[in-house]
Design goal:
The protein is mainly alpha-helical and about 425 residues long. It has a domain of about 250 residues: Na+/H+ antiporter like fold (Up-down Bundle), CATH 1.20.1530. The chain contains 17 helices and no strands. Helix 1 crosses helix 12. One of its GO terms (molecular function) is antiporter activity.
């Protein structure tokens, strides 16, 4: 029997591609660390090149909304753990004094303004426009990593980075009530007076409170189990990778089971861990593992995004799509951010960084897929095109300017 050489098995081909993506995720962040470019840009370019080489898998499409939801969900909760572990003194007002303004002022203003822009520019139906506002409201904790505060064990020096990290960690969970608002509008109609009270009590107050309580309880219980019950010799033998996954999955799963917002719980649980400064060396190793895991999935998602943009390049040539994306990036978020920071002691440069770098990304894709899987929205394809295009422009505009702004931050933004 002759040996079969150079036969192509699809499964083995995907294994090869998965390995190549993992290699890219390991190498790219190191190689470009001092370049004026960020990893997602490289991944998008890679995806475009793969499409041109006829390697194209249409993963980002309406028929794959369930798979998109699950993959992006995992990436976001991993990144929320990272964000929480980075925040030193997470339960002090000093940490939150600027981020709170972004959460209670910038976020609602962004939702309303984005919804109006989606209706006026893109012609979205009311419920679809509201969904657009909701999915565009959170600052992405994955893409905002360029402007996140220092890693565990290192001193915080920059107000803007601490503010953006705290905002990105909190508002990814707080976008859920507004996504439910859009889902309810699509399901029950836009007679808001008939169901707005029920939505506010159940989906805003109760589920948010359960998320906070679940995060505090799970974070405290996991910490006590690992660091208080275990002996010093046992702790050194515990796998940081397994512990990191436990810190991510236990709060999320437990809180979701009892009806709360798991995104909030994951971030709060990680904050509980970071609050114990005497275990900084352990927090750093937990963060490092999660960051490596996050990098692999980010590489995959943006390579596929590059394929999607290359195969649907006419999206970027659509004047309405381009206009809405640029309005969101250059007007709505910056203005909403600047207004919320009025009267603070931040300098004009610090206000600009915090306001402008509210980057949109994987969290927006997750919320969009979640909403599509839970309600029948009009303008689904239009919504998808606008969200993907906006993320594409955000990655490019914020990504190419990030390194330059980083240098400015080091000179002008010390946390004194």
């Amino acid at each position: 029997m002759e040996a079969e050489l150079f036969t192509i098995d699809e499964y083995e081909l995907w294994l090869l591609l998965a390995g190549a993506i993992a290699l890219l995720a390991a190498i790219v962040p190191i190689v470009i660390v001092k370049r004026h470019i960020t990893p997602p840009i490289i991944y998008i370019i890679t995806g475009i090149c793969m499409y041109l080489l006829n390697v194209n898998y249409q993963f980002i499409s309406l028929k794959h909304s369930t798979e998109i939801e699950k993959i992006t969900e995992f990436v976001v909760i991993v990144s929320l753990t990272n964000a929480g572990l980075k925040i030193k003194k997470p339960f002090e007002w000093r940490t939150w004094k600027y981020a709170v303004r972004l959460l209670v002022i910038t976020m609602p203003v962004t939702i309303v303004a984005a919804a109006f822009a989606g209706w006026w520019i893109a012609g979205l139906a009311p419920a679809a426009a509201l969904l657009f506002g909701a999915v565009m409201s959170p600052t992405d904790p994955v893409l905002a990593s360029e402007f996140q505060t220092t890693a565990p064990g290192e001193e915080d020096k920059y107000k803007t980075k601490l503010t953006l990290t705290a905002e990105a960690g909190a508002n990814d969970g707080l976008a859920f009530p507004f996504t439910y608002l859009a889902i309810t509008a699509a399901t029950l109609g836009t007679n808001y007076e008939e169901w707005a009270g029920t939505w506010f009590i159940n989906h805003f107050l109760i589920k948010t409170a359960i998320g906070l309580a679940g995060g505090l309880l799970c974070g405290w219980a996991l910490y006590k189990l690992v660091f208080s019950v275990s002996s010093a010799d046992t702790i050194s033998k515990i796998s940081r990778g397994i512990l990191s996954l436990a810190l991510t999955l236990v709060p999320y799963g437990a809180t979701e089971l009892v009806g709360g917002y798991g995104f909030i719980a994951v971030f709060v649980a990680a904050c509980v861990f970071s609050n114990y400064e005497d275990k900084e060396e352990h927090m750093e190793s937990l963060h490092d593992f999660n960051e490596e895991l996050e990098n692999i999935f980010v590489a995959f998602i943006f390579i596929v995004s590059g394929m999607y943009m290359a195969s649907n390049y006419e999206i970027l040539l659509n004047p309405k799509i381009m206009l809405l994306a640029l309005v969101m990036i250059f007007i709505i978020r910056p203005v909403a951010g600047w207004v919320s920071l009025a009267g603070t002691k931040l300098s004009a440069f610090q206000k600009f960084v915090v306001s402008f770098y509210g980057i949109r990304g994987i969290g927006s894709i997750y919320y969009l897929a979640y909403a599509f899987n839970n309600a029948d929205f009009q303008n689904k394809q239009t919504l998808l095109n606008h969200v993907v295009a906006l993320i594409f422009f955000s990655v490019l505009i914020h990504g190419f300017s990030a390194r330059y702004i980083q240098k400015k931050i080091q000179k002008l933004d010390t946390d004194t």
